[in-house]
Amino acid sequence: MPLKKPYLDIPGTTIFDADQARKGYWLNQFCMSLMKAENRTRFKANERAYLDEWPMTEAQKQAVLARDLNQAISLGGNIYFLAKLGATDGTSFQQMAASMTGMTEEQYREMMLRGGRSPDGNRELAEED
Amino acid sequence: MARITASVYTSHVPAIGAALDLGKTQEPYWRPVFAGYEASRRWFRDHRPDVVFLVYNDHASAFSLELVPTFAIGTGAEFHPADEGWGPRPVPKVVGHPELAAHIAQSVIQDEFDLTIANKMDVDHGLTVPLSLLCGQPREWPCRVIPFAVNVVLYPVASGKRCFELGKAIRRAVESYDQPLTVQIWGTGGMSHQLQGPRAGLINREWDNRFLDRLIEDPQGLSQVPHIEYVREAGSEGIELVMWLIARGAMADVAGGAKPNVAHRFYHVPASNTAVGHLVLEDQES
């Protein structure tokens, strides 16, 4: 029986469930390896070579190289693991979040200062324009 | 006999820790956040417990995908701040209370909550930011801390109902410990926030404040709220709020005693991507 997923109708949101975790296992474990300073150094020296040490799909490697977080999440990445990539790059959590929304960092920061993204119109897919 | 004297609830936003560590607390962006905790810091100085039982979640720091425990209790003698990718936070190591932790584990497991026992576990911002908010920047943390890590990263996480029931079991465990210790239980994480995808930045001020109201007045009813409501209304990372129900379940009124006193309440938007919520509830007999 497939997993029951009542959360699939939430717009712009990927729930990190067992299916996503299975798909993204090595992508996330690669990110985890960046918790060690020596691995960060090796990754920065040659990203492609470091990625090729991991049994990730080519699409996952391309998403990492492009720092395309939405794509990485769709391929099984989880934001707390992907945050290690941001930390390696010196990118703040807010910059990472902004990059997934189609806004500039400045626009995103302004939205947060004005109270954040409203839940109105963002609860269910049917609600969206 | 040991007893629970109070519960504390707070967000544990990593950027708050960074603002403290980098000396930015007086910057206009951060000043209102830290001002909201001034009364709590004073309260904590006057009500310092022997032990804080600190409920938090690990953010892929101690636990990779190799091992994801739903509930893990720290029974070790000490726990070190984790390197989350930019070096460990410059905060003291956490000194545990192995005897009380082992007693709680034994009691709670026999009460049918199947905990994972963690003797070695680095602790990340989820645990250290709340300590910094309440204790400031001391050379040593002013009390023992038992880390209690809850999985809220890999779906499904424990239900609000399960967390609330676990809190009741933790209270029974503490009260059956034969040393005269005072214990506070802290629930951390939240409030509304979403860190991923095109919906990142979601904040739901109305829902958050209703959550605070109900946590005080109607925790039993609040514990019935299903996961899907947290995710839809408070964002994919807002699910962390189930951890607050563990702390609330350990208060006296849930076990038939008097209602707690609200010593402090605070709410602020934003801290980085997140709504900050904070409550201090004291048990009246203390």
Which terms would index this structure?
heterodimer; A: 129 residues; mainly alpha; Protocatechuate 4,5-dioxygenase, Chain A; 2 domains; 9 helices; B: 286 residues; alpha/beta; Protocatechuate 4,5-dioxygenase, Chain B; two-stranded antiparallel ribbon; 10 helices; 10 strands
The gist of it:
The complex is a heterodimer of chains A (129) and B (286). Chain A is mostly helical and 129 residues long.
Structure description:
The complex is a heterodimer of chains A (129) and B (286). With 129 residues, chain A is mainly alpha-helical. Chain A has 2 domains: 16-90, Protocatechuate 4,5-dioxygenase, Chain A; 92-129, no CATH class. Chain A contains 9 helices and no strands. Chain A has helices spanning 18-23, 25-33, 37-45, 47-51, 58-65, 69-74, 79-89, 93-99, 105-113. By secondary structure, chain B is an alpha/beta fold. Chain B has a single domain, classed as 3-Layer(aba) Sandwich (Protocatechuate 4,5-dioxygenase, Chain B), CATH 3.40.830. Helix content of chain B is 33%, strand content 21%. Chain B is built from 10 helices and 10 strands. Chain B has helices at residues 14-21, 31-35, 38-46, 98-110, 125-135, 160-175, 205-217, 219-222, 227-234, 242-249, and strands at residues 3-10, 51-56, 71-74, 78-79, 94-95, 116-118, 144-150, 182-188, 261-271, 274-282. In chain B, strands 6-3-7-2-8-1-10-9 form an 8-stranded mixed beta sheet, with helices on both faces. A two-stranded antiparallel sheet of chain B has the order 4-5. Chain B is globular, with a radius of gyration of 17 Å. The two termini of chain B are 13 Å apart. The model of chain B has no long low-confidence stretch (mean pLDDT 97). Chains A and B meet through helix 2, helix 6, helix 7, helix 8 and helix 9 of A and helix 9 of B.
